[in-house]
């Protein structure tokens, strides 16, 4: 199982330069990937393009780019350009986002599964074949002049928690990137569903990228209490509420990986044992000295990655 870092699910307070520095440090530390959520801060593909010029090996992922706000032709052009800039290390995570976020922009959040199915079809045609001729319920994609010399295909990962989204992720995309999916939901539902979809489509095992809050702390209950407060919004959004229910947990605190070094290492190993291909940790601080807390968590993650 590959191990990476994830930022942006809650406000980071970081400047653009500081985000790039974190990515550079993650590569130097031996971590496999670095993921950025497209929320209210920087444009993550621009951040990735900048970081790509300062790194050589680490994979760079979007977790995730909302689709209703960008036509797939537009995102394909941007993603192909960024992937070229970072030497083929882009992992493109996409998803429909959430009804309140989308409708707050005056857009309609309707039939997200059909929307994503068409989106992935156009995106894959453009980024793999360099052309598209598609007319669907949501989108029209027509172009025969889409190319960038030297560009290479990159993984397209769908934020998939519901059954129809998992079907699309396994059938058409290269896998899924999740947030707030715990071990029980992954083992009993999400991983079997996406693997079934991929198998029925004649494809290999999909990539399963799992984002999860992580804090190394002596008092596990304190770690869970802080997670409950910091990530409380995710227990209120319908999409995440459903996956939390699938995992038979009360809220985000129960999904957070927290405890001392031995406990956290054991919990991370459990994700590897059920078929997660990539675990991307979002360190969160516990206690008065936030920087020491974050450093303790990052140090453990680096030690596990280098073992």
Structure commentary:
The structure is a single chain. With 307 residues, the protein is an alpha/beta fold. It has one domain: Alpha-Beta Barrel (TIM Barrel), CATH 3.20.20.30. It is 46% helix and 19% strand. It has 12 helices and 12 strands. The protein has helices spanning 16-28, 44-52, 72-85, 99-103, 112-129, 163-171, 183-200, 220-230, 238-246, 252-255, 261-273, 290-306, and strands at 2-7, 33-36, 59-62, 65-66, 90-95, 132-135, 140-143, 156-158, 175-179, 207-216, 257-259, 278-283. Strands 1-2-3-5-8-9-10-12 form an 8-stranded parallel barrel, surrounded by 8 helices. Strands 6-7 form a two-stranded antiparallel ribbon. Strand 1 (2-7), helix 1 (16-28) and strand 2 form a beta-alpha-beta unit. Helix 1 crosses helix 2 (44-52), helix 3 (72-85) crosses helix 5 (112-129) and helix 6 (163-171) packs across helix 7 (183-200). The mean pLDDT is 94.
Task: Give the gist of this structure.
The protein is α/β, with parallel strands linked by helices and 307 residues long. The chain has helices at residues 16-28, 44-52, 72-85, 99-103, 112-129, 163-171, 183-200, 220-230, 238-246, 252-255, 261-273, 290-306, and strands spanning 2-7, 33-36, 59-62, 65-66, 90-95, 132-135, 140-143, 156-158, 175-179, 207-216, 257-259, 278-283.
Overall geometry comes to: globular
* Structural class by secondary-structure content: alpha/beta
- The largest beta-sheet arranges its strands as 1-2-3-5-8-9-10-12
Domain module tally: 1
CATH architect. name: Alpha-Beta Barrel
The percent range for helix content is 40-55%
For this structure, the quaternary state is single chain
Beta content: 15-25%
| CATH class term | Alpha Beta
Question: What is the N-to-C order of secondary-structure elements (H for helix, E for strand)?
Answer: EHEHEEHEHHEEEHEHEHHHEHEH
DSSP helical segment count: 12
If you compute it from the alpha carbons, what radius of gyration comes out, rounded to the nearest whole angstrom?
19 Å
CATH homologous superfamily label: Luciferase-like domain
Unreliable stretches: none
